[in-house]
Automatic annotation (TrEMBL):
The organism's place on the tree of life at top rank: Archaea
Protein name: mevalonate kinase
Gene encoding the protein: mvk
Coarse class of the protein's main subcellular location: cytoplasm
Alphabetical GO biological process terms: isopentenyl diphosphate biosynthetic process, mevalonate pathway
Organism from which the protein derives: Candidatus Nitrosotalea okcheonensis
Record-level Gene Ontology MF annotations: ATP binding; mevalonate kinase activity
Length: 317
């Protein structure tokens, strides 16, 4: 018996970094997915196979996740351990993870994998509801990121466009916009925790400026939500460019990212960093009138691909 589930990646349209300090963020899932396939094995082991490596643990050793050398795999072993304990099975599990999402570039691959693995492993016993899946997936992610907000796992599970803030949590944005983006990879490696620490230090040294930037960001986001509801691409693109200027001010852009933005905005409606910055990816908002020219420009200096909003979220295959 095999249990297969897939979950989409995500992009942050507005609000990265500032959301930690009280603003909203706007996220959406994208039509690039991670698929997890789980099956029973006779040995009392949990085996994980992926393009980024393989790992294996005896079931009796699953209490010691700190021994897992590939840190990114700890959440998957956590899910397997929880599921096996709850269902009192004597069999082991093999999990195969396949991805359409580049890893480590701010597109939510780790959260998407947690959601897909949670649904797939539990699907060997029963199909969980989306609400059950996201709760377990967030717990699993916290085995490596204790302060994880759950934003990425939530948008991956439920799909579509959402806003998020620390007080109110998640709110779906009522829209079925068929937005298109070009995602361009700077090929610069970044560490999210280091970049977050850098922004915190900037805030501590520039308290008044940072508070002013937060207010500007909140205005941008409120106007962006209106633009999304109206499907006003020109206004949305200009707001993306304004958001990127704020991110530059707090020091999370790079020369390569700025070059990608410069090229993208020659033809796209707008462009900005998505995710932590310090490397990773930019997103450029496009439609049929400018998608080819923007893609041609960016392909000269980066690896890039087209993505649309995914409204399906978690799927059992």
């Amino acid at each position: 018996m095999k249990s297969v589930a897939s979950a989409p990646g995500k992009i942050i349209l507005f609000g990265e970094h500032f959301v930690v300090h009280g603003t909203k963020a706007v996220l959406c899932s994208i039509d690039k997915r991670i698929t997890a396939t789980s099956q029973f094995v006779d040995e009392r082991i949990v085996r994980i196979r992926s393009s980024l490596g393989e790992a294996e643990m005896d079931i009796d050793s699953l209490d010691n996740l700190e021994n897992v050398q590939q840190k990114f795999m700890r959440p998957f072993f956590h899910v397997a351990k929880k599921t096996l304990m709850e269902n009192s099975t004597k069999q082991g599990i093999e999990i195969t993870i396949e991805s359409e999402i580049p890893a480590g570039v701010g597109l939510g691959s780790s959260s998407s994998a947690c959601v897909a693995v949670t649904a797939s492993v539990n699907g060997l016993f029963r199909k969980l509801s989306s609400e059950e899946v996201v709760k377990i997936a967030i717990q699993a992610e916290r085995t490596i990121f204790e302060q994880n907000s759950g934003a990425d796992s939530s948008v991956s599970t439920f799909g579509g466009l959402v806003s998020y803030d620390l007080k109110s949590g998640f709110q779906p944005i009522p829209s079925r916009n068929d937005l298109s983006f070009i995602i361009s990879n700077s090929a610069q490696v970044h560490n999210t925790q280091d970049v977050v620490r850098q922004v915190r230090q900037f805030k501590e040294k520039n308290e008044d400026l940072f508070n002013r930037l937060c207010k500007e960001e909140m205005d941008i986001i409120n106007n962006a939500i209106i633009s999304l509801r109206e499907n006003n691409l020109n206004k949305l693109g200009l707001l993306m460019l304004k958001n990127h200027e704020l991110l530059k001010q707090i020091g999370v852009s790079t020369e390569k990212i700025d070059l990608l933005i410069k090229e993208a905005k020659k033809t796209a409606h707008g462009a900005k960093i998505t995710g932590a910055g310090g490397g990773g990816c930019i997103i450029a908002l496009v439609d049929n009138s400018n998608i080819k020219d923007t893609l041609d420009n960016l392909r000269k200096i980066s690896d890039c691909f087209i993505a649309k909003i995914d409204y399906d979220g978690l799927q059992y295959v």
